[in-house]
Design goal:
Blueprint lengths: L1 H14 L5 H4 L7 H4 L9 H10 L2 H19 L37 H36 L4 H12 L3 H15 L5 H10 L3 H15 L3 H8 L4 H37 L11 H10 L6 H27 L7
Helix pairs in contact: 4-14, 5-6, 5-14, 6-9, 6-10, 6-12, 6-13, 6-14, 8-9, 10-12, 11-12, 12-13, 12-14, 13-14
Length: 328
């Protein structure tokens, strides 16, 4: 009975149509390049930072206002009419209110406030940028060494505690007074930069030191130490690239602080002299005549507020964009 069933199955298969394997199946050629191809876009940290940054409304507003301010600081002073930034000897432009001829009015000396604000803002921003670069460079180098070499803690922590207990503005004013007495022939701009940078780096150094302590014991840094890599190379190649985003954010937040310090020192008479044109000098002059001519104080005050507000907006947007957790 079993043989009969096998014979029946064999006859059924023999009578069925022959299948063509070439028509039923298609050979797939394996390619090494195709198998290693990544369909997704490769991750780029700085591209992701830019993508997140440019999507923030605060970044768009900050960049737009910054472009207008930079354009005004660079271009407008070249179109200043002759004598508009000097005291008016004809006494025809004294204390004029805002008008089409003088958009922000004039000072008690006849100086046009519109052009003076742009010229003063340019000088204040240049001094702030120079001071910021010096503070960031010194603070980053000292902070890296401070966090990497723990033996520096007792010395630098005591220095930080001593300086941080003194209000920064009071310290700058004290240094300005000392330099004015000790070096009377030194340029006011140089003295101002020295006052802002002599101890201004210590806060940046502490900031970098704290983050250096967090990452210095990670696996790749421990491996570098085990292999005998010099400390300077570890700080330059391993630690500094990781801290680059934090440093950029610190720069954007330090610039308005330096502008405020320069303006405050000039406002209280410890910065640039009254013959110079800066935002602090204009605020000091406007304060004296605010009751009779309020525009002399409001014009430079609004200019200063626009600059500080712009940099703080950019700093906040950058701090969010540099966070890898917010990418993708």
């Amino acid at each position: 009975m079993l043989s009969a069933k096998l014979a029946e199955d064999f006859s059924r298969k023999a009578s069925s149509p022959v299948y063509d394997e070439d028509k039923m199946f298609r050979r797939v050629e394996l390619s090494t390049e195709e198998s290693e191809h990544i369909a997704a876009e490769p991750y780029s940290y700085w591209k992701s930072v830019f993508r997140v940054f440019i999507k923030k409304p605060s970044a768009i507003i900050g960049l737009s206002v910054l472009f207008i301010l930079l354009f005004g600081m660079i271009v407008i002073p070249f179109f200043t009419p002759a004598g508009y930034l000097e005291p008016d000897v004809t006494l025809t432009r004294l204390n004029l209110p805002p008008s089409w001829e003088h958009l922000f009015g004039t000072t008690n000396d006849g100086v046009d406030l519109f052009f003076a604000c742009w010229a003063g803002l340019r000088k204040s921003l240049i001094l702030a940028l120079i001071s910021t670069v010096i503070n960031i460079v010194l603070g980053t180098l000292v902070g890296l060494a401070w966090g990497f070499f723990r033996k520096l803690d007792p010395i630098l922590i005591e220095i930080y505690n001593l300086i941080s207990n003194i209000p920064s503005l009071l310290l700058y004013m004290l240094l300005g007074m000392v330099f004015a007495i000790a070096f009377p022939s030194m340029s006011a701009e140089v003295k101002l930069v020295i006052c802002l940078t002599l101890f201004g780096w210590i806060g940046v150094a502490l900031f970098i030191r704290n983050f250096t302590l967090i990452i210095t014991n990670r696996e790749y840094n421990v491996a570098s130490k085990t292999l005998g890599t010099p400390a300077f190379r570890i700080m330059l190649r391993n630690l500094l690239p990781f801290l680059s985003g934090l440093i950029i954010t610190e720069i954007s937040l330090t610039i308005p602080g330096m502008i405020s310090s320069e303006v405050s020192m000039s406002y209280f008479g410890f910065g640039l002299p009254s013959t110079e044109i800066s935002v602090g000098v204009l605020l000091d002059n406007g304060r004296r005549y605010f009751d009779q001519h309020p525009w002399q104080l409001l014009a430079p005050a609004f200019t200063l507020a626009a600059v500080i507000f712009t940099f703080y907006l950019l700093g906040l947007a950058l701090s969010d964009a540099l966070d890898p957790k917010k990418h993708r």
